[in-house]
Design goal:
Layout: H1 14-24, E1 33-34, E2 43-44, H2 47-55, E3 76-78, E4 87-89, H3 108-123, H4 130-160, H5 166-177, H6 189-199, E5 206-218, E6 223-234, H7 237-245, H8 250-262, E7 267-268, H9 275-281, E8 289-300, E9 313-320, H10 326-329, E10 336-342, H11 343-349, H12 351-367, E11 370-374, E12 377-389, H13 392-399, H14 418-421, H15 435-444, H16 474-497, H17 503-512, H18 528-532, H19 540-554, H20 565-578, E13 583-584, H21 587-606, H22 612-617, H23 620-627, H24 636-651, H25 658-676, E14 683-685, E15 688-689, H26 694-705, E16 713-716, E17 719-721, E18 724-726, E19 731-735, E20 743-753, E21 757-771, E22 776-781, E23 787-790, E24 801-804, E25 810-813
Parallel strand pairs: 8-12
Antiparallel strand pairs: 1-2, 3-4, 5-6, 6-10, 7-13, 8-9, 9-10, 11-12, 14-17, 15-16, 16-20, 17-18, 19-20, 20-21, 21-22, 21-23, 22-25, 24-25
Amino acid sequence: MPICFICKQWLSSIKNLNKHFQFKHSTHDFSMYTCVENDCNRSFHLLNSFKKHLSTHMSETLSHDSTSPLISNTSTVVNNCTSVSDFILPVNNSNPPASVTVTCFDNQSIIETQYSNLIASLYSNPQVPRNVVQSVVEGVNGIVGGIKNSLINTTSQLLTDDSISTNIFESLNLKINNIDNNFTCFNSEYKRMKYYTDLGTFILPQEITIGERLNENRNRNSFTITPTNCTEQLVPLRKVLKKFLELKNVLLDTLEYMNKIKTYDTIIVNFIQGSIWKKKMNNNINQLILPIFLYFDDYEVGNPLGSKSGVHKLGAVYLTLPTIPSHQQSSLKNIFLALLFHSSDRSKFGNNIIFKPLIDELNFLRDSGIDIEIPMFKGNIKFELAIILGDNLGIHSITGFVESFSANYPCRICKVRKEVLKNQCYANESLTRSVEQYNLDVLEGDISNSGISESCVWHDVRGFQVLDQTGVDIMHDFLEGVCKYDLSFLISNYVLELKMFSLQVLNERILFFDFGPDKGSKPSVLNMDHIKKSTVKLSASEMMSFVRYFGLIIGDFIPQNDPVWELYILMRKIFDILISTSFQKGCSELLQTLVAEHNELYIKYSKSHLKPKFHYLLHYHSMMDKFGPLILLWSMRFEAKHRMSKVAANTSSNRRNICKTLAIRHQLQLNGIFIKGSLGDEIEFGPSIEINNVDSIINEINKCNNINTTSSLIKYAWITIKGSKYQPKMVLTLDIHENHHPKFGLINSIFICNDKIILFQCSQLNTTEFNEHFFSFEVSEENGPTIFISYDSLPSFVPNNINVISNGKRYITVRGGL
């Protein structure tokens, strides 16, 4: 029988050992499984490997010895009990023991924890209405009640048959009758919310009254107007951040990541390496301060084209911490709701009233901070508003700049007139807005001559300056702006003007093109009416895929050195810089040159003026110096966060106080994370695959990776690591040379060696050249043997795609910066 390595309890089977782990030790960190059979003491990282190993000991432990006082030679063992441990009944009619210790339902707190986790997971799913949770609870209570009655009847029958003593019967009945006690605190929503609130995992949003409105009430014979409070929902950020940083390894991983960043001299990977944050930290050397990103956007929870459009248009402010490890920054569960209100209330009452509660909370976090006490860290952490993010309209609307981009001065970064903007290829540094000029413009209050509608309310946040701390958004400026105009012109030019190919051919190639890792954002077919109006109907993620592979999709129709095609090449170079999560110091100057050349070519060949979104690109080089990689500032993940509210709103018919309804759902989703105590696993596995020629594969692994012994080897169909999925036929970057082409490998198989080492079996590819026309690397497969490379030794963790085009050659499109 297997033995639990934690409490040393004997279990009847490996299956019951697994159940024992789930119930008895639900709070244990199973980062390692240790075999204690016959002093084996081998350790495993994966449960499957541990269970396979235990099966080798089963022949040695087919039966339990007679040392247990609860089991006699005639005892009956009842397995798969619904409680924490095995349900063991001594059955000896001739001489029943006087007293027996019954362990079946002793661990009530563990049962309660498991039940609370189940309910928390239901609440955290926005597709499950809260009234359905009540139905599930009632159903579970009914099942448990049935099991309880069945157990009572069984024990009563055993007593009647003299199979058990009166003492055992009373002890069992006491335990069985206590089953209901585990569920009483979950019987109603009030009790459930109180339970999670007392636990500290559910942080209830605060309802703030911001004013009044008059509501019309019409009855059959009467008409009344009643005043009603206008409210918004504020989430106590001090509680959220404290609970978040106290999750397992979150703060320690954050501090480790920040210390790692400080060692980078030539590569910029994070906001804290930018000039803005360095300037702020010069006077705060001895205090741990973490930057805060705020994002604002308006969104419609209902049908934006329906009869009620605009009625339930909401304004949301989200918060993120840019210093958590990079693979966690884009996760939606690490984006927190800070404020939720009706957009119409902001128009009516103004920014000062709407944002004042949030500003007060930010000032508290800056001045007082929060106290954290966890293993390995005890101290105070303060937070400072680092940057306000959003699309241009969103940023302008809450920071006091003009909301019309046809105004005389539509730019918040510089004071350029709209007539000059239309042909501008380089930013005029002398027109950059200064603090002195800004204050003077606010005092004058002339919108037409300044582009400023009101003083920025966020200046009430201590240490914040709007001219230095508002971001840019490559999603709306570049992907849904410049790229849309560029591709509309290019397709129109080649299809309508030069007739090099037809739109039907382009659409067919889009349909049958292998987008590889980007297949989830495959662009839809195009419509010529939209192209003529420069309104290509593609989402930002679809536009990313279209721009990335446009050269391979249609480039074989375009003659080499075609002058108009150079516009695509420049756009593609800008694209690579903007979507890169890291860049070399000095890359901002290259971006400035590329943007200038791009704008010049667009004006020259399209015969069109530049739109405001082209102008914002002129400032991107200075934004890179201030804030680091610009992809870390984009709206993509924040807009994905809107989906939770939209789904929750559609599953609920309640519109009486939609802000409160959705804010509570956001916090219930956060409750599901907090109650687990960690952010979850970073690795997910696909199904395992049978391995052929195991010995030869192990020998090759040992040669390639200097692994002395291979105790276990498992092959998987696919694996997801830190959000990136790897599977056969994808391409990995094996090596990067400064003066040579990178080396690539085509994934054949994926292995886990010794329960911890992730290995890719790859066919080596020979890089022939970088073809700028297709903007891809031309490669050919080498005839040598396959190689094994570990995940940790990869210079880039972004999987790439390989395609064969009409000339029969193979090309690799690099999806991440090299």
